[in-house]
Amino acid sequence: MNAIQVDHLRRVFTTNVGRFRRESKEVVAVDDVSFAVGDGELFGLLGPNGAGKTTTVKMLTTLLIPTSGSARVGGFDVEHESQKISSTIGFIFGGERGLYWRLSGIDNLRYFASLYHVEPAVAAKRIPYLLDLVGLKDRGNEKVEGYSRGMKQRLHIARALIHDPQILFLDEPTIGLDPVGARELRLVIRNLQAEKKTILLTTHYMFEADMLCQRIAVIDKGNIVALDTPEELKKLVLDLSVIEVEVFGVQDDLLEKIRKQKFVDNVSVENRDQRQILTVQTPRGSEAIPDLMAIFDGRRVGKVTSREPTLEDAYVRLVGGDA
Amino acid sequence: MLNTARINLRLFWDGAVLSYIALFRWLRPSTYIASKVFGPLVYMLFFVLLGRYATGSSDASFFVIGNAIQMCAWSGIYGITMSITGDHWDGTLPYVFGAPANRLIVFLGRAFIHVIDGYLGVVLGFFWGITLLGLDLSQTSLPALALVVLITTISTSGLGMLLGCLSLMTRNVMFVNNTVFFGLLLFAGANVDVATFPGWMQSISYALPLTRGIQAGRAIVAGADLSQVSGLLSTEFLFGLIYIALGYVLFRWFEKQAKRRGTLEAV
Ligand SMILES: Nc1ncnc2c1ncn2[C@@H]1O[C@H](COP(=O)(O)OP(=O)(O)OP(=O)(O)O)[C@@H](O)[C@H]1O
Ligand SMILES: [Mg+2]
Fold this sequence. Notes:
The structure holds 2 protein chains of 2 kinds. Chain A has helices at 53-60, 82-86, 105-115, 120-133, 149-161, 179-194, 206-212, 230-235, 252-260, 289-296, 311-319; strands at 4-17, 23-37, 42-46, 68-73, 76-77, 89-93, 167-171, 198-202, 215-220, 223-228, 241-247, 266-272, 275-282, 301-307. By secondary structure, chain A is α/β, with parallel strands linked by helices. Chain A has a 6-stranded mixed sheet, sandwiched between helices. In chain A, helix 3 (105-115) packs across helix 4 (120-133). The model of chain A has no long low-confidence stretch (mean pLDDT 91). Chain B has 11 helices and no strands. The A-B interface holds A 11, 13-14, 58, 61-65, 83, 86-87, 91, 93, 97-103, 107, 110-112, 114-117, 120, 143, 159 and B 7, 10-11, 14-15, 18, 21-23, 25-26, 86, 90-92, 94-101, 106, 259-262, 264-265. The structure holds adenosine-5'-triphosphate and magnesium ion. Magnesium ion binds at residues 53-54, 171 of chain A.
């Protein structure tokens, strides 16, 4: 049996726009999504902002009722057997809210332990263990309102694990964590995987997905556009190599010009301090560098490198634009 | 069976204590105690002296009893609505409604300490009444009075629980609370005899909790025994249960609607 089974899931939001003349507008957050996650699998859900990842996770965690389609988690239907699902899953949504700010970290965990029917004796052992796991051992007695953003995120992770759930939904779990904290959390996720937990992870960090996930679904505008192992996804761009050009201020017309070149498959820009990194995907590899330089026509250019494609390049090709 | 009961008891207790702490933790212990002890004193003095001045009567017991019992509305209305809407402001609703916890227990737990708090508020009101405002309890059966106060506190808190759930759906919590609190102050007859109201006002009075409780309280203080106020008391209690039940239904309805419309996190 699959731990998570999603069939033609769809979710439409109706929102009111306009201040005086109330008009309602429909937003299709999730259009038609189907996938399955095996028992003990670590499955990644990637996609640009607004693609529908969080909406999908909310439906799977019983917090949102699907407009149509169905999904089963741990064998139970998300709409009609939500109560049964809730005790077997744990979930976090990136961000600081969702904790009792005026209570201490420990009191927060204590309350969530009782909301999840954890035996007090078990909770008494588990709370210090989890605080240690997320690096909050010394701060557990302090009020959450005094926590930093990353500390709140860490407490959320402890909260999600309080009842030792078999299936985990982690929506951008490393958001707001410092690099060391993010690395530690990835280790925690690895260990959970070793314990045969089923994990559905969303992230904007491609290396994270590449490193952790056994399979990845790329979702764009509410639809899955690719679903495979990281290795297979990378093969999507095997025909390409990547040239990275360091530039200092880049105009849109220049970008357009590059994009129009026959040998260019895709261009994206990433800002780094005063510079930008232009990532150009091309089937011609480093041979394309001279032609590319010709377009720059004497403009100031920094380091130019050519490399093998990564998962991020595959992702960029799938969803296009500036990832 | 026994295990379920134990788990729910735990859930009830933790929810009660922690939601209360979450509400008042910003106060220092001394400030907290002062607000609980001297707040009622100022309140009692204000209304009792005003009442005495307005009516020119030297017997203040009518006002003392009314306002002492009215005291339970502070915790019953403000405390409980803040406790229930606290989840809204903290953004914890998705995590509460995503948990397997029994919703009725969660709901009742949010109110529990405020009922005790409200009860103590009334006791303090009577205390100030006896020590400073010349209330005479020599004719009074104290156990009967204690029961009247308990039932009235529960029923008034029931209204608070309904309001709390209403407040989950609006941003104007304080506006709603103030309106209801001062509405109760007027309609329940703490300072004015309900019998002098025009008919339409009386029908509001008798649809609210507290009104009958205050009447029963006055009768008991004057020397009546429990059997003479049993009608008032049982109706008061019934109204309390109805408000609590309505509140719970609304609580469940809110969860369902929020999950359907995607508004669980809306502030
Ligand atoms: N409660 C809601 N009401 C109305 N529209 C919503 C609601 N929640 C999400 N949406 C809309 O649904 C779409 C998908 O949002 P969703 O949060 O699922 O995206 P996402 O993939 O998680 O994005 P991100 O990477 O930014 O977290 C967006 O257009 C968003 O505006
Ligand atoms: Mg999201």
